[in-house]
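## Example pair
The file below holds two records. Each record gives the amino-acid sequence first, followed by its structure token line.
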Amino acid sequence: MIAILGGLGAALAFAVTTLCSARASRSIGALATLGWVMLVGLVPAVVAVLAWGGDAPQGSQFGWLALSGLGNVVGLALVYAAMRRGQVGVVAPITSTEGAVAAVIAIALGEEISTGVGVSLAAVVVGVALAAAAPGVEGKTSPVAVALACSAAVAFGAGIYATGRVSQELSIAWAMLPARAVGVVLVTLPLLATRRLPRPGQATKLVVVTGLAEVAGFASYAVGARHGIAIAAVLASQFAALAALGAYLLWRERLTRIQIAGIVLIAVAVAALSALRA
């Protein structure tokens, strides 16, 4: 049950980051948004490690931390760039397959799941794809945006699997730090040094909320991953469906019958998954 709750909590947080970052990246640019988001998120991540970090990482754990950080930063850079070139309703569902990528990695490396759980996870993936489908296309999404979104899903999938491994071996606090540290070093500081990091201006609230929600989402996912990486990862991918709902509530973007069917499928699959894991 903890794996389910952790995954769903992460999905909610990542839905918030999707909505806010989409607006911010179109306002100040993809790299600038990433730079500010990483800087904002670094503060609570460092505080968490200092307060609750416990034992420092050792040996192979540094490799998982590095993969966790790089996967998340590269994934965010790719998805922010994709959202500048394509519609959120197209980019989000492609990116949301990150959970399936992580689940496949977990299963390939030996995590065992029952047939019923496997079917439920597959239904969640299908529901996410349907519920996050673009409600209407005013213009074509470029092949470049699609390619960027697919690449982001692979990067995110590897990153969140590594985050799950980190959360199983170290304090939850360590799962939040790698991406923020890597992002600040590789993105924020170089942009500052070259004076290419614009002030966020009207996007300030958006980047602050995105940065904090990113950290909260990783913390929730890390808690869930301690009890099952595959389950927490796939449920976390529901962020795309939640983002579609958020866009409807905030900006009155309409929901199609396919999206509604996807949301119903997700609800049924989650209920079945909860019963199987109880």
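Second record, same layout:
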Amino acid sequence: MRITSGGNVGIGTNSPNIVGFTGTMLTVNGTGNYQGFEVATSGTSRVIMLSDGNNGYISTRQSGMGLIFETGAASQKMAISSAGQIAHTTAIADWSHTMTNSSTTSPNGMLIQYTGANKNNTGNEFLYFTDNSGITLRFKVASNGGIYNYQANDSNLSDIRTKKDITPLESYWDKFKAIEIVKFKYNDQTHDDFNIGVIAQQVEEIAPEFVDVDGWDETPEDGIPLKSVYTADLYHTTIKVLQEAMAKIETLEARVQYLENK
């Protein structure tokens, strides 16, 4: 081992600039392509941290070894398996990339936020998924909240074993006639196209069971939470109203046929 007058340390080398202290920072300052630290067990390299001058690397160097990140008293916070699976707890599921939240009080999922722009359109995405060609879009979530998929193969759980208190739906004929369908633009949308839908307050006056009043995002300055509409319930109720209309049409057709045959 050699120590220069400048404080650099060389271990197993005649060039003491390989390892040195810069202030309170232990610095590896070599001249080769790869310089860093290595942790070995019985002479076998286990973990290395190095730089090639362009990128930084942390590697386990051994097949089958994972990488675990801990804080506090050996408290695991994130792990990367040897297969590349990622988890934020001790569990690594059989997915390519897995994120789990073990909180039992106020668990939350992933937040994707634009901090430098206010986008509300179809051209900027929060999520974008393609197949192995990297070209064919399969699924995306646009910045205006729109969800797009390749085959319109949305599936909602509807198995009878998951439901109880099943009863036929009452008539919504009169209520649906009173719901106003409007076209509109959102205050913050970045395109000039009209949207088509309903207004939650108007629907609430007629059929409050279709309106969620628990709040959407941040509450406005007036202190009243934003209201949203259960569109899936509206769609299914539309089928009920259509069935009623079909029954009325069939009755009228039968009467017309009867009159024509007289």
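Notes on the second record: Residues 231-261 form the longest helix (31 residues). The longest strand covers residues 44-51.
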